[in-house]
Write a structure and sequence with these properties.
By secondary structure, this protein is mainly β. It is 3% helix and 49% strand.
Length: 476
């Protein structure tokens, strides 16, 4: 491929929604208003091929998505007694992102092309994970093309094959795409064979671009990607994954995945979600998730360390009745090699994962070696009472115990409290406007857990998105 193809990614949809059991979570939870790309891709694949004849459908059935997002964050940490500067791991950022996302129609109902560009403007101290980061301690603005993908579609609604390749997000099996203001992306491809409510998919990629980077880089077994004068990383030549998903009519689903980072790591995972309707008493949704993984020969082991099988399991129960939603969950992790469970097929920062963790928090996923976590939370839609439909508030509390303290003989306990308010305009001319405020507090016993220090965090996110359907069609 030529260098002109270097910038790409399928930008994902902005919606307002919670992160409770039945929903597929955003893996790196930078922006809770942002959902994963997979539901959008499935929706696109399910539509009937356009009726416009020949090449004309490329333009006449095209859509243009426009969005703007403000992201502000202040994360304060307590580094007392750690022997590092007081500001280490703190984040202070104000960022403003804009994107334009062109999606063509399908020529002869078969082939199309998607192209998008984005700007992430602002300045921040600390690793914001949304602005351009070059290891200088200060994050800066960037402008990039973020998608250039060819798409093919064969068959109809009940049975068909969908292909896309180039620079694009991938969400198959255990290989996924996260995002901040917008989306990360890969140089790769994915294929989906659809039969009614069942999808069998395969994804493959050999390069990856974080949102905080301006280049598609080779993948490595080290987080730094050999970017900052480090040259000890061994290349992971490609990642790939196969996945099977079946969705039930009542909203439940089963999702299976097997993935590999070439000569670095293999994993397999399964998740099942089952809603039970109790009529006027509400709906109970039970969800269970498990992943098993093992490093291979290109893992940078410490002296005398053996490769061991690692796993994470978490379950949740969600009760929804009227405006109220309550949830409770439990999780356990064993990760002797990773220390903090690794869900990716490369080292952190070199690719994304597609996890379904049921007990995560805003400041910690609670997936350290030996760690147990219990979570409880609620959401309440109070908008109708205030004449502001679309307004909701909520909170969650996580308590953790048994986590092995890296580099220390003891185990640790801790807790996290998160709370939020979200508002999304449900209809009218301002539909697509959403505002969210998210706060979190993380504490470990005596602030002596070497894996993560005590933290306070607040995010403010304001976004507006609009899609112009068939905006190039001639009007009679």
């Amino acid at each position: 491929m030529s260098k002109a193809w270097r910038h790409a990614a399928l930008v994902i949809v902005m919606i307002c929604g919670g992160a409770f059991a039945g929903e597929e979570p955003l893996q790196d939870d930078i922006n809770p208003l942002l959902t994963g790309a997979e539901p959008e891709l499935r929706a696109e694949a399910a539509v009937t091929p356009p009726s416009a004849p020949g090449f004309a459908s490329f333009f006449s059935d095209a859509s243009l998505g426009l969005s703007s997002t403000y992201y502000g964050r202040a994360r304060h940490v307590d580094n007392g007694g750690r022997g590092v500067p007081s500001y280490t791991d703190e984040i202070h950022v104000n960022a403003f992102g804009q994107r334009a996302d062109f999606r063509s129609g399908y020529v002869w109902g078969v082939v199309g092309f998607d192209l998008s560009g984005q700007t992430n403007l602002g300045r921040g101290n600390g690793w914001s994970e949304v602005l351009l980061h070059k290891e200088s301690g200060v994050d800066r603005s960037s402008v990039s093309l973020s998608q250039a993908a060819v798409k093919l579609k064969f068959g109809g609604e009940d049975f068909g094959l969908d292909l896309r390749g180039g620079y694009t997000p991938i969400s198959i099996g255990s290989l996924g795409t996260s995002g901040g203001l917008f989306s990360h992306s890969y140089r790769g491809m994915e294929a989906r064979l659809r039969y009614k409510r069942t999808t069998l998919g395969y994804g493959w990629a050999d390069r990856f671009r974080n949102e905080w980077d301006d280049n598609y880089r080779k993948m490595y077994n080290r987080w730094h990607q050999n970017r900052f004068g480090n040259d000890d990383g061994i290349r992971v030549t490609y990642v790939h994954s196969i996945g099977l998903r079946h969705e039930f009519e009542n909203g439940g689903f089963i999702d299976l995945g097997v993935g590999e980072g070439r000569r670095y790591r293999r994993n397999m995972q399964a998740v099942a979600s089952v809603p039970v309707d109790f009529g006027c008493w509400g709906t109970l949704t039970l969800t269970g998730y498990g992943i098993v993984a093992r490093y291979r020969e290109n893992y940078p082991f410490e002296a005398g360390e053996d490769r061991e099988t690692e796993y994470h399991v978490s379950t949740s129960a969600e009760w929804k009745r009227g405006r109220w939603t309550f949830m409770g969950g439990y999780g356990h992790t064993r990760a002797p090699n990773s220390r903090e469970m690794q869900f990716r097929l490369t080292a952190w920062g070199n690719s994304d994962n597609r996890n379904f963790i049921q007990t995560w928090g805003q400041l910690d996923d609670f997936v350290w070696d030996g760690q147990n976590v219990a979570k409880t939370g609620f959401r309440y839609g109070l908008g109708d009472k205030l004449c502001l439909p679309g307004l909701s508030v909520g909170a969650s509390y996580m308590y953790t115990w048994g986590g092995r303290n890296p580099g220390r003989p003891d185990k640790t306990t801790g807790w996290e409290l998160d709370y939020f308010a979200e508002y999304a305009v449900p209809e009218g001319r301002m539909k697509g406007l959403a505002l969210g405020v998210y706060a979190g507090h993380l504490r470990y016993r005596n602030n002596c857990f070497s894996g993560k220090q005590n933290r306070n965090d607040v995010k403010v996110i304001l976004s507006y998105s609009r899609t112009l359907e068939k905006f190039l069609r001639m009007r009679k």
